[in-house]
Amino acid sequence: MTSRIATSAFYLIAGVVLTIDPSTSFQLHHSRTTPALAPRNTGRLQVLRQDEELLREELAQKNTNTENEAAYSVVDGENLATVEEEQERDAQKVKTTSATDLEIARALKTRAYPLFLMEKAAVIVDDFLESLSTQSDIQIGSASTSISRSKDTTQKERLVILGTGWGAAALLKQIDASRFDVTVISPRNFFLFTPMLAGASVGTVEYRSIIEPVRDINRKAKYLEATATCIDISKSSISCESVVCAGSSCTIEDFEMEYDRLIVSVGAQTNTFGIPGVREHCCFLKQVEDARKIRNAIVNCFERANLPRLSDEERESILTFAVIGESFAVVVVCLV
């Protein structure tokens, strides 16, 4: 009887210990003194593990903010292509939507009839004002261009130069044609380097090598081939004559040229000092034609002296030349 009571008390104490501390039950499970308790302890451990798994699942569900998270989860970059295609489609829709469609949509919008009339009147007024502003801009632009052109023409002073000698050539090289309306009037359309005329008269240099065209000196200046015959200071005008040739016939045309500033650079004529017969029988050396005339006269004298049946006195008379003056041209002719 006493042994049964002790055995019951032992089992009761062991059960309490197993309920309170699983580790104690685990130790008792492996104890050699109580092999009969192993199956019972194993069942309790399985129950505890199942309870723990249930608690973990409940906590995981409570911590999840999104329902059906797997349906919304995506891999990085998975839907980027789809999003870009949608954006392109939206952009194309915006582009294809014309101003007419927008006007139609606005017109079909439900609103009060007086408000519709006010909007329509505002559109008409805006179009009318825009057309007026465009016309005014065009008129202002044309007026400004005409004013600027008139300013350009009125700001430039009309400068007339008579002659193409040393003074005129030097002025043409230095003058600013953007500030002045330059016009050159002369019967000679080139500048002549007169110191070389003596060499050209005897064949040392060619005529083309001692002249320079007026239009090459200043390409912005205008040239008129004419001769000034009269200057009217009160009217600020010049009367000119121009020889116009058509075929074998030539005519003289008169015209007038107005100016704001006038420069006379016509040079001077050869002085005969009043000696009789000089102008009628002598060759001057002032122009290219004078050098050509002298050259032809010298050649003719040599050809005449080469003719047969001439005495020595006649040949000496034909080849005798008289030079009047002692300028640089005379010295050059004598040296050659």
Please tag this protein with its features:
elongated, 3-stranded antiparallel β-sheet, 336 residues, alpha/beta, 4-stranded parallel β-sheet
Question: Secondary structure elements and their pairing?
Answer:
Layout: H1 2-20, H2 22-29, H3 38-63, H4 69-72, H5 80-96, H6 99-107, H7 113-155, E1 157-162, H8 166-174, E2 180-186, E3 190-192, H9 197-201, E4 211-213, H10 214-217, E5 222-225, E6 227-232, E7 237-246, E8 249-258, E9 261-264, H11 278-281, H12 288-305, H13 312-318, H14 328-335
Parallel strand pairs: 1-2, 1-9, 2-5
Antiparallel strand pairs: 3-4, 6-7, 7-8
In angstroms, what separates the terminal alpha carbons?
178 Å
Q: Identify the strand order in the major beta sheet.
A: 5-2-1-9
Question: What is the N-to-C succession of helices and strands?
Answer: HHHHHHHEHEEHEHEEEEEHHHH
Chain-averaged pLDDT:
75
Task: Provide the helix percentage.
Answer: 40-55%
Beta-strand content estimate = 15-25%
Rounded to the nearest angstrom, the radius of gyration is 61 Å
- Count helical runs: 14
